[in-house]
Amino acid sequence: MKVFQIGAAGGIGRRLATLLTARGDEVTGMHRGPAQAEVIAATGAIPLHGDLIADSVDDLAAKFHGHDAIVFSAGAHGTGMDQTSLIDGRGLEKAADAARFAGVARFVLVSVFPDAGRDRETTPGFENYMRVKKTADAYLVGTDLDWLIIRPGTLRDEPGSGLVTAGLAIEYGDVRRDDVAAFIDVALHRPALNRVILELTEGHTPVADAIELVLERSTTLRR
Ligand SMILES: NC(=O)c1ccc[n+]([C@@H]2O[C@H](COP(=O)([O-])OP(=O)(O)OC[C@H]3O[C@@H](n4cnc5c(N)ncnc54)[C@H](OP(=O)(O)O)[C@@H]3O)[C@@H](O)[C@H]2O)c1
Q1: Residues of the chain with pLDDT > 90: what percent?
Q2: Residue 222 lies in a domain
Q3: Can you give the CATH number for the domain in which 107 is found?
Q4: Range 1-27 average pLDDT
């Protein structure tokens, strides 16, 4: 499979690129700065310069052309409301439009768990982030792409356990970036898992089994 990753040098992105290349997939990783090209190359993926803000929809479509799937795990990472709107918001819309133009139907988006931040005092920046993420989800759901939206709980950098809970509605919790990457790696290779929004936390079920459970329990998803 040829996978195009947006946010490939990020915390989830570089873990996912490593897993995908290890299983023999061909991965193109989009990056903004030269240092990120080295991070991406170290995963075995092919670095390609690109920027969700500077690139047009046509620019992105040209980059996506010939790939089988796109994974979007980019984000402004607390660099300001304007950046959040341009990257997590408009950036996602541009990428989804570009995927359609390029004929790449499979599109996996890393979004956010709706219960995030409930345990602390909120800020305007965080409220904006949550609004932008929801609007981006809604935009992708409104396309005819074979989308899959994953809403992880609070991301952690401890080594992955390989054990998760995944479902349409689950209790809020943390989840390790390693395990989010492992989940996307398996999900990308289960094409029946599409047009669904999944919440994801750490748990007690091996990643591959968690995906099969979601498929089994859904009356709308077909194997
Ligand atoms: N933190 C949490 O607890 C949490 C929980 C749930 C969901 N999430 C979401 O999970 C997603 C992935 O998380 P993560 O830890 O992997 O994030 P991350 O480490 O911040 O990675 C994000 C990547 O996006 C890239 N990026 C930013 N702006 C870009 C642009 N204009 N064009 C192209 N690439 C751009 C970044 O590159 P640069 O280095 O150039 O900026 C970086 O490589 C984020 O969208 C985040 O909102 C986070």
Answers
A1: 93
A2: no
A3: 3.40.50.720
A4: 98
